[in-house]
Amino acid sequence: MEDPIDSLGFDGVIDDMTASISSARETIQSLKERPDSLNSKDGISLLSLKHHILLSYLNSLVLVSSRRIIGHSLSGRAHPDQHFSAPDRPSRGNGVGDLVDFMVEGRIVLEKVRILEARMRYQIEKLVRVAEEPDKSLNPIDGQPTDPLAFRPNPNNLMDNEEGAGTTSGPLSEHISHRTSHGPHDATFGGEVYRPPRVAPVPYNEKKSKSQLRKERPPLPSALASLSSDPSRPHMESTSGLGSTPSLASGRAAYLKRLNEFEEENFSRVMMKKSDAKRRARDEEDLALGGSLAGGGAKHRRRAGGLEDEFGDVLKSVERASHRGSLGGMGDGYDELRQRAKKADVLQRSRQEGVRKRASPRDEEEPAGRSKKRSRFELEAKSVKKKLKGRK
Amino acid sequence: MADSSAPITLRTRKFITNRLLARRQFVLDVLHPSRPNVSKAELSEKLASLYKTDKDRVVTFGFRTQFGGGRSTGFALIYDDEASQKKFEPKYRLVRSGLAAKVEKPSRKLRKERKNRAKKFRGTKKSKAAEPPKKGGK
């Protein structure tokens, strides 16, 4: 009836059991030599709680399984023998059901212990590290042994020692050296003061946005504008006699051309706002009369006739050149600031102050700041006016 | 000023025969040197004589005068028959050419107000609610 394989397995199981029983006996011997380790008078720590509960769990498991093998049912519960008022009355009796209850309880407690252990992981790791390397170094400041379980910052580490970083307490120093060994930039941290790099101060120039830069860029010269389109014919025929094809000169002109093509292709007019439609009509007229629409439409359109349009790019580039030449000469970053500080020319100033004077009411007092210096002519004109008024 | 007997030149560009919509469509360039503008009716007459169709079949729209006068560009369609024109033309152009009547509706605001007033009633009473509530005296 018994297979030969089964007896081999059985032998293996018996051997395992013998080995484990002998190792358990060794542990029990060592425990017997130190009876105070089982003493829980001072309270029980979290880590030893786990061991004790596991032990009781195994105990009950063995009893339950032996009862089950015999064939008893697992539901018999009994009250403990002692009276209710006895102080050391256990919570459960000796029935089999009580053992099962105890196993369930032990499981729940173990789960909760696991959570608590997770919360205290940092402290436990420190303990383990201390246990692994017992290093009793003295704290140079206090003269007392550095308590590796003290979790407050160690001012010893911040001090400037002669030996450098080596005098920090054992596990902490390892931690720090472990950290600094990372990374390519290895700052020699041996108690030196950090000195930032010395950089000369640079003036702050506001960065112009792209649209602003585009607006303020000098317009492409109309003579060169046609080169990109057809370099083999640098001189192109035009009906207006003013220059090369205006529709290729500027972005606005190209857009209008494209719009026209779109409309003709799709057999319908594009819906536009009134202002847009007016602007379009005006631009188309300008184009037809020969302007290239370069130089931005934002500038005031009160320019006279076709001269400004024809030579607009030249005139604008001349202005820009004088602006840029000074910068090219000196070239330090403070030029913009200097420009701002300079007074504008007389014409600009008179315009500005004319506006300001008109804006503020005449009854106001003179402003607290610097008022305009009255020229002799103005004073005389004022006095004449007063005389005329008085005469009336 | 406006010399209505001055000759006009018509030029067609991008001529397409649109079989799907039963029409011929093209871009029309009108050269009118001594006149401010040419009316759509006159243009459709001229086109009808050019293409030997009925002047009601010709639809012109979208004319814009170019740089200072003398020339304008627009679009024109010539339908094959009235049925296809009524089917494919948008309502506003049919009204322009007289083939459809304009639907007279009260203003949008008025319509919406009436609807909201009618929401308060049910059934035939809705017509009674069409008028606004009489204010005081009357």
Automatic annotation (TrEMBL), chain A:
Composition bias type Basic and acidic residues, residue spans: 205-218, 335-362
Location of region: Disordered: 136-248, 273-305, 322-392
Cross-referenced InterPro entries: Sas10/Utp3/C1D
Gene Ontology cellular component annotations, sorted alphabetically: small-subunit processome
Biological process annotations from GO: maturation of SSU-rRNA from tricistronic rRNA transcript (SSU-rRNA, 5.8S rRNA, LSU-rRNA)
Coiled coil (UniProt feature): none
Comp. bias (Polar residues): 237-248
Ranges of compositional bias, category Low complexity: 193-204, 222-231
Protein's UniProt name: Neuroguidin
The species this protein was found in: Tricholomella constricta
Automatic annotation (TrEMBL), chain B:
SUPFAM superfamilies per UniProt: Ribosomal proteins S24e, L23 and L15e (SSF54189)
Lineage top rank: taxon: Eukaryota
GO cellular component: ribonucleoprotein complex; ribosome
Pfam families cross-referenced by the UniProt entry: Ribosomal_S24e
Compositionally biased residues, Basic and acidic residues: 128-138
PROSITE patterns registered for this protein in UniProt: RIBOSOMAL_S24E
Protein's recorded name: 40S ribosomal protein S24
